[in-house]
Amino acid sequence: MSLLELKNVSKIYGELHALDDVSLKVEKGEWVSIMGPSGSGKSTMMNIIGCMDKPSLGEVLLDGVDISKENKKNLTTIRRDKIGLIFQQFHLVPYLTAVENVMLAQYYHSMPDEKEALEALERVGLADRAKHLPSQLSGGEQQRVCVARALINYPEIILADEPTGNLDEANEEIVVDLFHKLHSEGTTLIVVTHDPEVAEVAQRTLVLRSGKLHKEKINENFTGKIHFND
Amino acid sequence: MFLRMIKGILTRQWKKMLMIAFTIALGASLASAMLSVMLDVGDKVNQELKTYGANITVVPKENSVLNELYEVEGSGGTGAYLKEDELGKIKTIFWAFNIVDFTPFLDTSATLDDGSEVQIVGSWFDHHMELPTGESLDAGIVSLRSWWELKEGSWLDEQRDGDSADCAMIGVKLAEKLGVSAGSTLHVKGAAAEKDLKIVGIYDAGGSEDEQIYIPLNTAQALADLDGCVDKIEVSALTTPENELSERAAKDPSSLTVAQMETWTCTAYASSICYQIQEVITDSVASPVRQVADSEGAILEKTQLLMILITVLSLIGAALGICNLVTASVMERSQEIGLMKAIGAQNVSVTLMLLTEIFITSLVGGTVGFFAGFGFAQIIGRTVFCSAVSLKPMVVPIVAVLVVAVTMIGSIPAVRMLTRLRPTEVLHGR
Ligand SMILES: Nc1ncnc2c1ncn2[C@@H]1O[C@H](COP(=O)(O)OP(=O)(O)OP(=O)(O)O)[C@@H](O)[C@H]1O
Ligand SMILES: [Mg+2]
After folding, report:
1. Residues B268/B245, Cβ–Cβ less than 8 Å
2. In Å, how far is B365's CA from the nearest CA of chain A?
3. Chain A hits for B5, Cβ within 8 Å
4. What is the DSSP letter of B423?
5. Are B250 and B29 in contact (CB under 8 A)?
6. B341 and B230 share a domain?
7. CA angle (B178, B183, B186) in 5-degree steps
8. How far is CA B406 from CA B9, B323, B331, B347, in A?
9. How does DSSP assign B308-328, residue by residue?
10. Contacts of residue A96 in chain B, CB cutoff 8 Å?
11. Angle of helix B290-332 relative to helix B347-385, nearest 10 degrees?
12. Ligand 1 pocket by C-beta < 6 Å: which residues?
């Protein structure tokens, strides 16, 4: 059984089909990139997979559970237990320090554990920045805090919506390296990106176009390492 | 973690919360000022009004009947008097603590050397009295006629040994007519005795009393040969505004049911105080001085109504202000709240966080406001009622409950917004 399966999923806003009859399977431990022009429905799909939105039509099976039928409260619980989210705009709580931001995810999940949170920060190379507020961190550092926050509860899937959209190449590489580490530990990754170099690192790239699955590309020589061809 | 978050927002974003705290402080200060004054103002207004004279008069039964029949003022030698030695009993009635002051009067007249007749009133000035209950009391016209303006000399001091019996105070008009001043002596001839009265003070009462002479009660009794007699007692009592029950009771106490009778005697209506005074003073009729008693109650009611109105309005204002500020703050923090929900926060925990924040803020604002309001109440007390407003312990819980209620009500729209907020709406820059 696949970890994630979308069956004829559509998301319709009035006339607009943001997602139009999309079917797809993602296996456990897979690293998938999603590409597509702006407005093609990438974020819409991520929101549905991430239990933050429901499809208008179709079924979404996550770990065998049809999340398109669950109520809001259960969706929150599923999201909390199974999904790690990373956003383009980082979204850290401004009045909490880096380590507290990581602990926040633990708090809503189960019990905050400062030691574990510090370890997570150490994994993303920010042990020495634990007590800094987001405003005192660079964009790359903030995104690494977000990665630490996303992985702290050992989620089944990490969903990243343009995680490197606001980062320079150096930080992009750090983040992709972190993804590589997570992938090699068996975490499933779904990464939305505009950046072909980031997309190419994944095992599989899906291309959306006006809500439809347009193209699917398997990366034969998958290394998980980013390679800048300039 | 919860505490760390609260601490985080309060220590690192205190400026935003300050505005909310300030609004609450404002509302709380008004509310506590008004409540302090309101709970204290009953006594204050009464004391204020007391300076305008007595609100109950006690006269002998026969005179009262005559007065009613012929509508004549004063007691016209019917030979009926009250007994001076019963006066202390007034302080033994159930409502003794509501009796602020009382003074006996004995009207008499005397002839001067030139043959003209003057009205002389015997009364207490600052009479010291040992009560049957063991307490003591200072009563007299010094406090009951506090609006008298001293034109010359000083108030007659009864406590002064020896010569006080021969002292007198004279009204300003009469003094002018007779050409006397403080220090002069006046020879008067009463029905039973003659006296040389030493004028110690000249007063301006602004009424008929300006043509009278006031002397100690015992001296007047000696002049008129009426030992132990009094023809009128004025009582100043703190009363509850009259209502339908008290009016019915005043007309005919026997028309009440047992339960009504109980309420009536257990409420400090002027009429029930009168009734009790009549029971301790033989052959007397006590009646409220209608005008004063009623206007006292009415003013009190109106003042309290006004204060309740101000309190309610200020609380509504505070609630609206809080509503705005909290909603704005939720809007401003929508991304952060959306994020919390995205990483697994249920509505309850986000709501709880917001309410705790606001609650702590309101606690701070409320405390500050309470003390500010209490200071404000002092200012009102000093300027309007000329006395300090005492802190009624009741004000604290009332203000606390009001502050919490107002902040929670003010937070309702914000909480609704917060629970409806969907993470997808705020997290992805579309
Ligand atoms: N709540 C909504 N109401 C109406 N239309 C919406 C809503 N959310 C998304 N859409 C529309 O759905 C389409 C897909 O949006 P989506 O955010 O998924 O695009 P995207 O692929 O993530 O684009 P980008 O690369 O710019 O982030 C867009 O045309 C958008 O306008
Ligand atoms: Mg998008």
Report:
1. no
2. 22
3. 93, 96, 100, 104
4. H
5. no
6. no
7. 45
8. 22, 9, 20, 22
9. HHHHHHHHHHHHHHHHHHHHH
10. 4-5, 8
11. 150
12. A 13, 16, 18, 36, 38-44; B 430
pLDDT (tens digit per residue) in A68-80: 888 988 999 999 9
Q: What is the pLDDT of residue A147?
A: 93
Instruction: Identify which of B284, B294, B259, B288 has the alpha carbon closest to the alpha carbon of residue B272.
Output: B288
Residues B105 and B202 in one domain: yes
Distance separating alpha carbons of residues B321 and A149, to the nearest angstrom: 36
> Which residues 33-72 of A are in CB contact (within 8 Å) with B?
43, 47, 50, 52-53
Which residues of A are less than 8 Å from B430 in CB distance?
Answer: 43
Instruction: Tell whether B148 and B72 lie within a shared domain.
Output: yes
Percent of chain B with pLDDT over 90: 13
This complex has an ipTM of: 0.90
pLDDT at B52 exceeding the cut of 60? no
Nearest CA to ligand 1 atom 2: A13
Number of domains in chain B: 2
Neighbouring residues of A122: CB distance < 8 A, sequence distance ≥ 6: none
Return d(Cα B346, Cα A160) in angstroms, integer.
22
Whether A106 sits inside 8 A of B344 (CB atoms) is no
| Tokens of residue B31, six digits | 């509310």
Which residues are CB-contacts of A190 (< 8 A; sequence separation ≥ 6)? A4, A26, A32, A34, A46, A49, A157, A158, A159, A160
- For residue B422, how far is the Cα from the chain centroid? 57
The whole-model pTM stands at: 0.66
Q: Is residue A50 a contact partner of residue A221, using CB atoms and an 8 Å limit?
A: no
CATH architecture of A4-218: 3-Layer(aba) Sandwich (3.40)
Q: Which of B271, B288, B305 is the last residue of a domain?
A: B288
| B26 min Cα distance to partner chain A (Å) | 27
Q: Closest Cα to atom 22, ligand 1: which residue?
A: A43
Same domain, B106 and B223: yes
Looking at chain B, which residue has its C-alpha nearest residue A85?
A: B343
Same domain, B242 and B374: no
Q: Angle, nearest 10°, between helix axes B14-50 and B347-385?
A: 30
Residue-number span of the structural domain to which B204 is assigned: 55-288
Asked if residue B242 and residue B369 are part of one domain, the reply reads no
Indicate which of A93, A145, A153, A162 best probes the interface with B, i.e. most B CBs within 10 Å of its own CB: A93
